[in-house]
Amino acid sequence: MPDDHDAETTLLRQKDYEQPSAFTPENLLREARRQKALSEKSVPEVCLLDPDGDIVRHLKATGAARRNPHWPGYHTTLYDFDLDGRTVGVVGCAVGASFAVLVAEQLFASGCRLLVSVTSSGQIVPQGAPPYFVLIEKALRDEGTSRHYRPPADDYARLRPALRESLREAFDDCPQPVHPGAVWTTDAPFRETEAAIAAAEQAGLLAVEMEAAALYAFAEARERPVVCLAHVTNQMATVEGDFEKGEADGSHAALRAVAAVAHALAPLEASSRNGSPLPGE
Description:
The chain is of the alpha/beta class. The chain has helices at 4-13, 25-36, 54-61, 97-109, 161-166, 194-202, 212-222, 251-273, and strands at 46-50, 66-67, 78-83, 86-92, 114-123, 132-142, 156-158, 178-186, 207-209, 226-234. The radius of gyration is 19 Å and the shape is globular.
């Protein structure tokens, strides 16, 4: 019987990263539209993942969210809302690496051209008192989904360099600070041991969250533009009064950060409509 190491390497040997998947998001969405009697229509070009669901709840409570009637996803609801003169699509509560990438695949197959993720995260190397944001430049791959998209040789998945450069001064006017840096992506938040946190701190990781490494591995493999922001809101409940995001559960600040990303990348998005690919496409 193979030992655990042999079993792991056997699984990794079965990954052919150049071979296309037999199961595609396009085909899944085709069948979902058939079953739900939906017409095919593109989603907004800019879409947002809101794992906590606070942004969606805020938009619904203020009457700003409109349920997209053409979204065929089996597991999610897509809402449209207006942000600085553009329509943005948002999916809430897709928590964790595999769920986030499943939705990302479907959004890009449906016409999305830029995906932004804003996830709450736990503070590791402090950049001030929470809440604040981290523009995730790279994420430690301590989850499984990224290994289906990129070989495990590199411990980190990264924001595409052209996107990072375009966002260098994008957040100067945001109400909460946005710090560039690295994070730790985990599949198991309740296995964030003291030893693991200390190792992450030693590596200079600013925060821990659950989606970015997989989203960036997907973005690299599929050549899609994805930007991940971590909203540092807590110290893993090691102090009382934790998990405070700010006004409207942090939605106002998060939407300003999303607007800053969309504005900074708008010239690239416009050029892509004229035939030049967005960085990552």
